[in-house]
Amino acid sequence: MTRVRICTDSTCDLSDELLQGYQIVSVPLYVIFEDQSYQDGVSIKADRLYELVEQTGKLPKTAAPSPADFERAFAPIIGSGDEIVYIGLSSELSSTVQNAAIAAANYPDGKVTVIDSRNLSTGIGLLVLKAAQAARDGQSSKEITEMVMSLTAKIEVEFIIDTLEYLHKGGRCSSVQHFLGSLLKIRPLVKVIDGAMTSTDKVRGKREKALDQLLNNALKHKDNMNTDFLFVTHSSAADEAAYVKQQIERHTRVKQVFITDTGCVVSSHCGPRTVGIVFAKN
């Protein structure tokens, strides 16, 4: 009997436990410091990335997996007689999905289905986990694809960024904005809208105020929130993530709240002490 295997890329930010538990295959993106290339989540994690940024004063470049990388990931699965549904990083942010599609074209129609998540981090991870549950339940690749496509516009992803340093180094924030933001302790709220990262608000003052704003924005949707699971995703902010999880569990009916670490690709743009809340709307 043909099975459906779910594939994704390292920006899904799912824990190793979830990836292994659902037999999800994750293809790593690349993180490049000068002439040294690392595989996201494999040969480099966010804590090491921050050390290198501190040492060099520069942000790394990131690169999508090549079609050959995807070919190496797909070939053993197809060779075993299974089919693949691949869900990847938004095409607004990377060529990852395009490269997966190039690799998929080497197989007969229907063997590999490539889906643009229009999202990042556990916004992808939530779709991947839903797909993996459906695959475990025996749904076909067509059924899984239709379900995922119907969900993509219902995913809510919002982060609070603690420092403007990484946005500044990455050219997404001018020197004046960086100076004033640091002086006034401004923390931007960033949402994923139409597949891209968009700054929607700026919280001035203490970090606790920013976290509460992030929570309040999510809790506005509590009556229309899918209760299967929710993600609290963070980069070097374990205590704050635990606090957010506690508040979500207290104020909603969500059955499972997962805390996950952001990988190097997201961390290289957002910086340390970033915290996000990710859920699906009904």
Give descriptors for this structure.
282 residues; four-stranded parallel beta sheet; 11 helices; 40% helix
Question: What's a quick, concise take on this entry?
Answer:
The chain has 282 residues and is an alpha/beta fold. 40% of the residues lie in helices and 26% in strands.
Written account of the structure:
This protein has 282 residues and is an alpha/beta fold. Helix content is 40%, strand content 26%. It contains eleven helices and 13 strands. The strands form three sheets. The protein has a six-stranded mixed beta sheet with strand order 10-9-8-13-11-12, with helices on both faces. Strands 2-1-6-7 form a four-stranded parallel beta sheet, with helices on both faces. A three-stranded antiparallel beta sheet has the order 4-3-5, with no helix packed on it. Helix 3 crosses helix 4 and helix 5 packs antiparallel against helix 6. The longest helix is centred in the middle third of the chain and has 15 residues. About 6% of the residues have low confidence.
